[in-house]
User: Which sequence fits this backbone?
């Protein structure tokens, strides 16, 4: 997903650069060179280029990706388990002996659970393999080749060390999971692993810290943490500044969306105000003039705008600084309910929190949606069309239909 996001951003930038270069190729180069950047005719000419191609700077949008928290946990444990590959290989050998038809039949006769083999790319399956193997210790000691006691002690030790990560992995499967919920669960896991005096535990702790640092390099992760009174006190000064920059920019965007555009001077009162209205009225010819007049009206009538914009930005920053100085809430507080109570007392920050906290910290819900496909499309229903499959999945996984 991260690679795909980077490729999308590169494609957008390449498309924008190509459209601009193609537009300049249409005009005479010597004519363009004669323009002065401070000359109004040059500005008007630049606007014509942007209007004709639709490639204004505001039209160049990029996609920001956030690493899946569950995947970061997966990678952290996988990195830590690399040093125990030889031990895990020996455990897999024992499990394969337990899964032979003769031994499996013997387990069934004794009403014991069968051994399970792990998937190398999923550490939780490795933990399940070790747990099932440890339960079959007495059977292995009696019916298989003798294994030294150190093997079983090592299995028990690794299971105890991985237990906090297994608990965290289950918590990350929650549907209504916020960044603060994830961070609290992550820190609890770290503290439990830190209390274990073992080389593998210290290795796992280093891997968890390394992956956590990668998560905290994302400014939107920091912004979501900033708006959670349970954990925002853990942010450093540099992280707080980065988070406030994102929150201020998002706040300004929300303000622009909520504020209607001012009427344009020099345009008839009956002239349409949007491009959609222009298209519906059949006045596409005047659309370029409308944009130019709109741009120049803003450009000439907002000479003092930088001061106003800076004062607004300063006011938002002061509110955010005051917010982070509020008392820390208990870890069991529901941050979504906390912001719902602020819907009327602080409506703008409430809207800001709804946008920032809407970002899911994991892709578990999406993966669960894809996994549900196996219950819809099976060997007995292979003739379903794509549209029907889409409709069934929407109804099956959309909780709004349950209320109706």
Assistant:
């Amino acid at each position: 997903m991260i690679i795909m996001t980077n490729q999308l951003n590169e494609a957008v930038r390449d498309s924008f650069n190509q459209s601009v270069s193609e537009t300049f190729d249409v005009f005479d180069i010597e004519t363009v060179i004669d323009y002065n950047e401070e000359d109004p005719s040059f500005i008007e000419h630049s606007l014509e280029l942007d209007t004709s191609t639709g490639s204004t700077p505001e039209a160049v949008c990029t996609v920001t990706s956030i690493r899946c928290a569950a995947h970061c946990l997966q990678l952290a444990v996988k990195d830590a388990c690399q040093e125990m590959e030889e031990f895990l290989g020996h455990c897999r050998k024992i499990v394969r002996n337990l899964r032979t038809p003769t031994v499996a039949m013997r387990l069934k006769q004794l009403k014991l659970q069968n051994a399970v083999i792990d998937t190398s790319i999923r550490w939780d399956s490795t933990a399940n393999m070790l747990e099932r193997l440890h339960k079959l210790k007495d059977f292995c000691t009696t019916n298989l080749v003798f294994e030294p006691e150190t093997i079983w002690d090592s299995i028990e030790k690794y299971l105890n060390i991985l237990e906090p990560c297994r608990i965290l992995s289950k918590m990350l499967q929650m549907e209504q999971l916020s960044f603060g919920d994830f961070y609290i669960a992550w820190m609890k896991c770290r503290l439990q692993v830190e209390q274990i005096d073992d080389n593998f535990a210290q290795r796992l702790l280093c891997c968890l810290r390394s992956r956590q640092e990668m998560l905290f390099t994302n400014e939107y992760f920091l912004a979501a943490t900033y708006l959670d009174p349970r954990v925002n006190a853990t942010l450093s000064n540099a992280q707080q500044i980065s988070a406030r920059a994102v929150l201020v920019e998002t706040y300004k965007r929300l303000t622009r969306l909520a504020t209607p555009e001012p009427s344009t001077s020099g345009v008839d009162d009956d002239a349409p105000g949007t491009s959609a209205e222009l298209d519906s009225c059949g006045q596409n010819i005047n659309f370029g003039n409308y944009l130019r007049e709109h741009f120049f009206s803003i450009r000439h009538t907002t000479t003092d705008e930088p001061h106003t914009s800076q004062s607004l930005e300063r006011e938002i920053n002061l509110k955010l600084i005051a917010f982070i100085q509020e008392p820390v809430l208990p870890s069991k507080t529901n941050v979504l309910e906390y912001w719902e109570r602020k819907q009327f007392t602080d409506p703008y920050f409430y809207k800001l929190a709804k946008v920032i906290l809407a970002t899911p910290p994991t892709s578990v819900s999406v993966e669960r949606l894809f996994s549900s496909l196996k219950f819809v499309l099976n060997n007995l229903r292979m003739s379903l069309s794509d549209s029907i499959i889409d409709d069934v999945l929407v109804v099956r996984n959309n909780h709004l239909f349950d209320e109706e």
Observations:
- Residues 26-59, 264-307 have pLDDT under 50 and may be disordered.
